[in-house]
UniProtKB/TrEMBL annotation:
PROSITE patterns: RHODANESE_3 (PS50206). This is Sarcosine oxidase subunit beta. The keyword Nucleus does not apply. One of its GO terms (biological process) is tetrahydrofolate metabolic process. It comes from Cohaesibacter marisflavi.
């Protein structure tokens, strides 16, 4: 059933008892044309575009838990495209453009809120780097502005901008089209739209092995039996190296916890997203009124998706450097996700050494904003057995050829 004013009115008459389930819960078939491993945003978007743009008929998404239960449902929901290097900027800009039309495309309100993202500059070097990024963005046709300290104060009056601050605000970049989107809705919207096109979304189905015949992939072993497939795409974020090992190759990915937290809900007070790499905090206010705060990655590697106390202390002190106004707020809850980091802070969307096996990984701390664009180009790569122009640079072999796209220290460090 499509969501519309008519369907809402109709269901209101029956006390909302007759809404159908948003997607089926099918039994796995023995064989698929394409299996996508991982039911996060990237896996679900890939399945959707495989069905929609490439007419692939038999597609399954295998998810070991519940869809969106990984990083997709744990992130701080910032979307933006103001990356420094051309390859990254073009890919993230494509994604932002798809986000702008996504609620209509999926017939699902993803609650995109283009409230702007400020990246604060606190030192002369920050100012130079930020202005350079603003200019690079403009050359790539991406909206970006430089705000001096006074303009920052006018745009977001509750930021501490006085000169006595330990980290004085000297200015900021502003991308007005950037903002936030509702993370669950992105996963659910893609799931529902993919299901409507015949994609089987199979939850509680853990892939435990990847089978090969010679140099070609043939299927997967799961806790629900063996399933064969012509092609397989891996979209498992923090578990990418585990899946690659199952297929017999190594990836330059390390998995770290990344933590976030929310305050108690308060009345609307912050109508933009503020990020500071120097103080290291990024903050926005959710539609429920909570302040949503994100940290940097934990220094150690782990698969434990939980928060820890030392990060609370760091995050709250970083927040209060910029926003003394929040000093009496209470923290409500915190959590962690496992992010897949690469040496150049850029993703891998690529063929692999195993034929018909494709990898979409390495999004690290910033892949929520990339979900539509990543799904779009990964579906293209799987369907055509060759990359789309937008992901041609994001190969796995760049780590041996040296063609890195280094967003570390530029735009890849924050979300
Ligand atoms: C705290 C935090 C804050 C963040 N903030 C932002 C932000 O503000 N903006 C932004 O752009 N990005 C942000 N990110 C990053 C972003 O969340 C991720 O890059 C993105 O969600 C990755 O999506 P995904 O679909 O690749 O992975 P996931 O959503 O993690 O999905 C992968 C799925 O694979 C499944 N899986 C793993 N192994 C198997 C297996 N063997 N068999 C079957 N299924 C398996 C998992 O259960 C999981 O559901 C943040 C991340 C975190 C943790």
């Amino acid at each position: 059933m499509r969501f519309s004013f008519a369907s809402l009115a109709h269901n209101a008459m029956t006390y909302h008892q007759d809404w159908p389930r948003q997607w089926r819960s099918p039994t796995p078939k023995n064989h698929y044309d394409v299996i996508i491993i991982g039911g996060g945003g990237h896996g679900l978007a890939t399945a959707y575009y495989l069905a929609k743009n490439h007419g692939v008929r038999k597609v399954a998404v295998l998810e070991k838990g519940w869809i969106g239960g990984g990083n997709t449902g744990r992130n701080t929901t910032i979307v933006r495209s103001n990356y420094l290097w051309d390859d990254a900027a073009h890919l993230y800009e494509k994604s932002l453009q798809l986000y702008e039309g996504l609620s209509k495309d999926l017939n699902y309100n993803i609650m995109l809120s283009q409230r702007g993202v400020l990246n604060l500059a606190h030192s002369l070097q920050d100012v130079r780097d930020t202005k350079r990024r603003v200019n690079a963005n403009k050359l790539n046709g991406i909206d970006a502005e430089w705000l001096d300290a006074e303009a920052v104060r006018a745009f977001c009056p509750i930021i501490r901008t006085d000169k006595k601050a330990r980290y004085p605000v000297l200015g900021a970049s502003l991308q007005k089209r950037a903002g936030t989107a509702r993370h669950d809705a992105v996963a659910w919207g893609y799931a529902r739209a993919a299901d409507m096109r015949g994609v089987d979304i199979i939850q509680n189905c853990e892939v435990t092995g990847i089978t090969r015949q010679g140099d070609r992939v043939t299927g997967v072993e799961t806790n629900r039996g063996t399933i064969t497939a012509h092609k397989i795409g891996i979209c498992t974020a923090g578990h990418s190296s585990v899946l690659a090992e199952m297929a017999g190759f190594a990836v330059p990915i390390t998995s770290h916890p990344l933590q976030a937290m929310v305050s108690e809900p308060i009345k609307p007070v912050l109508d933009t997203v503020v990020m500071s790499n120097a103080v290291h905090v990024y903050v926005s206010q959710s539609d429920k009124g909570e302040l949503v705060l994100g940290a940097g990655i934990d220094a150690y590697q782990s698969y434990a998706q939980r928060g820890s106390f030392h990060v609370v202390e760091l995050q709250i002190s970083a927040l209060l450097e910029l926003f003394p106004i929040f000093s009496r707020l209470k923290l409500m809850r915190m959590w962690g996700g496992i992010v897949d980091t690469t040496p150049d802070a850029c993703p891998i969307i690529s063929t692999t050494p195993v034929k018909n096996l494709y990898l979409n990984a390495g999004w690290g701390t910033g892949g929520f904003k990339a979900i539509p664009g990543s799904g779009f180009v990964f579906a293209h790569t799987i369907a055509n057995e060759a990359p789309h122009a937008l992901n041609a640079a994001f190969t796995l072999d760049r780590f041996s050829t040296g063609h890195l796209i280094d967003e570390h220290g530029a735009a890849g460090v924050a979300h």
